[in-house]
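**Protein record**
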Amino acid sequence: MSSTSPSLAPDPGAPQGPRAPATRAQAKATPGDTRAHNRSLVLAQLFHGGQASRADLARATGLTRVTVSTLVADLIAEGLLVELGPAQAGRVGKPATLVGMRLDVYDVIAVDLSDDTLLRGAVVDLSGRVRQRRTSPLSGRTGTAAVQALRDLCAELMAATSRRVLGIGIGSPGVVEGGGVVVQAPNLGWQDEALSDVLTEALGTPVWVANDANAAVLAEVTFGAAATGWVTVVTVGHGVGAGLVADRQLVRGAHAAAGELGHVTLDPEGSMCACGRRGCLETVLAAPALRRALTAAGTEGRSAVLQHAGQALGAVLAPVVSTLDLREVLLSGPPELLDGPLREAVQRTLADRTMPIIGSDLTVRMARLGEDGVLVGATALVISGQLGVS
C-alpha cells in the first residue's frame, strides 16, 4: 500500500452513505466527533504506512502519546489492530512494541452495476483482495426489479462470508448524490432512487453508493497503480462515465455529475440514447453499442469500428484533459473491446487535439485493476465511510 493517503474521502457536504457527517453550519463538533477523527488518523496511518509503534503513531498524527495509547487499546479490543511484537533493536532502552492493522477481521460486500448484461458482486477484504465472487444476470431488469436483484445478490454475498461485514459498497452508473441517492441512471431505469436507504433498511448493514467511474478512480489511487494525482478513469460498460482526480482530489461537480461523458452529444442526428437524446457518446462507445457495431461490421471491419469509437472518446476527452492538465487516462471495461485499436486511437486523438506540453506527456492505458476496478473502489468507499480511511 502507498505510504501517502490521497484526499479522496466523500465530500462532507455531499455524503455518499448512511452516516452523513454534519457540516459546520449544521452542528458544532462534539467530543465524539473529535474521537472519531483521531481514530481515523491512527487507522489511516497504519493502513497506508504499515506497522508502527505507539510513539511513531503519535509523531505521525500529531496526537499525544496518551491519546494514541487509549485509541490503540480500544482498537485492539475491537479486533482492528494487533500487537506484533518489539521493533528491531537500534535504540538504547527497551524496544517499542509495534502494532498493525488487521486486514482480515472484516469483509466488505462490493457490487459493480456498470456491466450491461449482469450484476457483478464480490466479498473483498480490507486489503482490496477479492475473496469470493458472485454474478446475477441482469436480463433487462430495470427500476424496482433491478433493485430487488441487487438486494438478492447482496444477501447472497453476506451469507457467503463468516467474517463480520463492515458494509456494502455499490458502484452504480449515472449521477449519484448525497445519501447514496441515484438521481439518474437511465440504463437501469432509476430516477431519484434512494438506493442506500432502501438497501440499508432491507439488509441491516450500512450501504455506501458512488458513481461507478468515481469508484474505479478511487480504486486505482488507493489500491492500484495510478502514477500521479492527475488522472481520469473512463469506465465502459452498460454506459460510459469518467472518474476525475485533480491534485489527488476527487472532482464531483456542482450536481455530483462530473465525468458524465457518456451523454455528451456527438451527432444530433445520430442513434437514440437511453437518456432520450440522439447521438450521445454512449451510442458509439457503450459496450452494447460497440458489440452491435462489431457484429454488423464483421471481421474485416472490426479495427475500423474500434478506431472510430476511440476517436470519439478522444474528442470528448480532449477538453477535459486540457482543462485539468491531466497526466493519465485509464480505461476500465472489457479488454477485448478497449485494449488495442480503440486505446491507440484515443492516444492519437488526444495528442492531436491538445497542446504538445499536455498531449506528449499523457499516458493512455488500461486500468491496472481491470474489470475489478469498480468492485475494489466500492470497497475503498466503505473503508472510507466506516473507518475514515481514505
Remarks:
- Residues 1-27 have pLDDT under 50 and may be disordered.
